[in-house]
Design goal:
It is built from 2 helices and 34 strands. With 658 residues, it is mainly beta. The longest helix has 5 residues. 44% of the residues are buried.
């Protein structure tokens, strides 16, 4: 956006130039496909935690993993969120024991912006990204309001409060406190199957972070956070009784996480493009879970270190970044059952991965960018060294057209039980023989995208389309087809996913924005009996979003989602009364919200999720006999609770201008 200021002969002491930035936009300068999402977009939905922050984003899908735990899982390019690198300010966050639940540990009001990268991200951030990267930027002492307060409640019995406050400690040091507390006390069973629709429970999230900046070129951050999360679900009678009888089927989840993190950087004054940086994190996390007669115990101690040096070669046409990294963790992942002596699964894993990388950027002008990176890592657990190459190209044949092409390799280590807790919410026996010994999950990804801006009058119709193909050399798969009373964990070759997305954004008239998107997914797994479509991934999905705001204080938002049919686990061998169709129904959901902003810094909002009250009435098989064969909660393909009305408010006290 360009501004031209023309002098008229008058002398002004101060001029404020105000421009409007899109709440969601594609970063056209990057070689990879990255969407930038700011806090204005996040406030279009209730946004209680990060898993609920993608309602108006077509690149990321969100679904429940089962009908018991209430765990929301994101999906990118037709694959589970664990195959995306999810970071908090370029520090790995939702991984390991945190892979499935990590998004619920990030309160939405803490988030200032999100960057969603589709396809493989920079080698600087490690080797684990396969389908993309989600980087979350929290409010920092230097960027957050002096005081931000948020409160929220919905008809399901969920209430939460968030607060952020910042202080300057002298001229060079500032600090921020981020507080979150939430509870879900509603015991709801709308479909009358005897199981609560959402688990009850609470979460407390505390964080304190510091920022300093010197006149010598040094700048840094240091922070500490602590999270406590508790859930109780299962049969309604189990949830309602403090001392339930053993015959009742109950679900409990108790987790804790503590983390110390920091960043330090130095910019060379005599070399404007040269800098060094150090990113580090030390964390402990544990989980204790009950799934009927099965019990899960896990803990993880992790350390992360990344050093970064960047500079130019002669001119800014040639840039490079290089560094060394270290990722170390000690993981315990155990599963027991009341009626079995010993462990069903017991893994003690110590994994130390030192690595080094270099990334070269060639940018001779504004029309072309090439980013080529390679890193080498040694994994002590697998006693193996491996190479991770990645390449991204961007070309602008015209001012309004951007083409991208990219690809490369990714790898990760699976936590077999901790990442598949939804499987435990059933009476299936678990067979881990096909998953042992543990092998790294290795995949290749390639993608192409085009961004086209079409001038229509004084505005642009913004079109974006992308296609990505991901194929696995090895993948950990859970086979629920072979036998409806068993779950087979297996290492397989041949799993793959193809994703196509087309999206249009247009400002129909001033302050009225429209978004339309369609997604095609062809995700397939290599099961014991051959290749078949992945579970619960819709082949077709579409959504449209309408947003209008007045010049002063009102905002209106409406989102319509359509989900195509999803494949369900095979039940042909089950008794007739427990059989299900091969595919689910397709369905629509409608979400709406109204915001009103007042001059005193207060913003109130009211909205409804699933306005049309669509519900899946039978998400649990054999719910009447949860301790018997064929009880299974892994058939949840749509909303269970139905319509959910909510209200809330924000209060913002901005910092005084210095």
């Amino acid at each position: 956006m360009n501004f031209i200021l023309v002098p008229t002969g008058s002398s002004l002491t101060e001029v404020d130039v105000v421009g409007r930035v899109d709440a969601t936009s594609v970063d056209l300068k990057r070689a990879d496909l990255t969407y930038k999402i700011d806090d204005k977009e996040l406030r279009k939905a209730a946004c209680c935690n990060l898993s609920e922050s993608f309602e108006t984003n077509a690149s990321v899908d969100v679904s429940f993993t089962d009908a018991i735990t209430g765990t929301r899982q994101i999906e990118m390019l037709g694959l589970a969120g664990k195959y995306a690198l999810i970071q908090r300010e370029n520090i790995p966050f939702a991984r390991g024991l945190n892979a499935n639940t990590g998004l619920t540990y990030i309160p939405g009001p803490f988030v200032q912006s999100i960057q969603v990268t589709k396809g493989l991200s920079s080698v600087l951030n490690g080797y684990e990204s396969i389908t993309g990267q989600i980087n979350v930027e929290f409010y920092k002492p230097e960027t957050s309001p002096r005081l931000l307060i948020n409160a929220f409640g919905n008809q399901g019995g969920r209430f939460e409060g968030n607060a952020i406050t910042t202080f300057d400690v002298g001229e060079k040091v500032s600090t921020a406190f981020l507080l979150h507390g939430s509870s879900n006390s509603g015991v709801n069973d709308v479909n009358g199957d005897g199981f609560v629709d959402m688990p009850t429970g609470s979460q407390i999230n505390l964080s304190n972070r510091w920022h300093y900046k010197t006149t010598t070129g040094w700048e840094g951050q240091l922070g500490i956070s602590a999270i406590k999360n508790d859930k109780v679900g299962g049969q309604k009678s189990y949830v309602e009784n403090d001392n339930p009888v053993d015959s009742l089927w109950g679900y409990e989840s108790h987790g804790n996480r503590v983390e110390l993190f920091g960043k330090n950087g130095y910019v060379f004054k005599d070399k404007a493009f040269r800098s060094i940086g150090l990113i580090y994190s030390l964390s402990h996390q544990d989980h204790e879970g009950t799934f009927g007669q099965k019990h899960h115990y896990a803990d993880q101690n992790a350390f992360y270190l990344n050093s970064i040096f960047q500079d130019i070669i002669g001119t800014t046409t040639h840039k490079y970044r290089a560094g060394i990294s270290l990722q170390a963790e000690n993981v315990s992942d155990q599963l027991t059952a009341d009626n079995i002596d010993g462990f069903l699964y017991n893994l003690q894993r110590e994994e130390i991965v030192p690595g080094a990388y270099v990334e070269y950027t060639f940018e001779p002008g504004t029309r072309f960018t090439m980013v080529a990176g390679i890193r080498g890592d040694y994994n002590s657990y697998f006693d193996k060294a491996y190479i991770t190459p990645r390449l991204n190209l961007r070309y602008m044949p015209t001012e309004n057209t951007t083409l991208r092409l990219g690809g490369g390799r990714g790898q990760r280590t699976a936590n077999v039980v901790a990442e598949n807790l939804n499987i435990l919410a059933s009476s299936r026996s678990v067979d881990f023989n096909g998953a042992l010994p543990i092998q790294p999950e290795v995949a290749w990804n390639s993608g192409f995208s085009v961004s086209q801006n079409i001038p229509i009058g004084s505005k642009f119709l913004k079109l974006n389309a992308d296609a990505f193909y991901t194929w696995f050399e090895n993948k950990l798969v859970v086979d629920l087809d072979r036998d409806p009373t068993q779950a087979f964990f297996i290492n397989t070759k041949g799993s793959q996913s193809f994703s196509f997305l087309a999206q249009a954004d247009y400002e129909v008239f001033k302050n009225f924005e429209w978004r339309l998107a369609y997604k095609y997914l062809d995700a397939r797994e290599e099961f014991l009996d051959g290749q078949a479509p992945s579970y619960l991934i819709p082949t077709h999905r579409a959504f449209t979003n309408f947003g209008y705001r007045t010049e002063k204080s009102w905002k209106f938002d409406l989102t319509i989602n359509w989900f195509g049919e999803k494949r369900l686990p095979n039940t042909e061998l089950s008794p007739t009364e427990f059989q299900r169709n091969e595919y689910s129904e397709d369905f629509f959901t409608v979400n709406a919200q109204i915001n009103k902003t007042f001059k005193n810094g207060i913003e109130v909002f009211a909205g409804v999720d699933n306005l049309l009250n669509f519900r899946q009435d039978d998400p649990i098989i054999n719910a009447e006999n949860p301790n018997a064969d064929y009880f299974d909660t892994n058939f949840a393909w749509g909303p269970i609770f139905g319509r959910n009305i909510y209200v809330g408010l924000y209060y913002t006290l901005e910092k005084k201008k210095k």
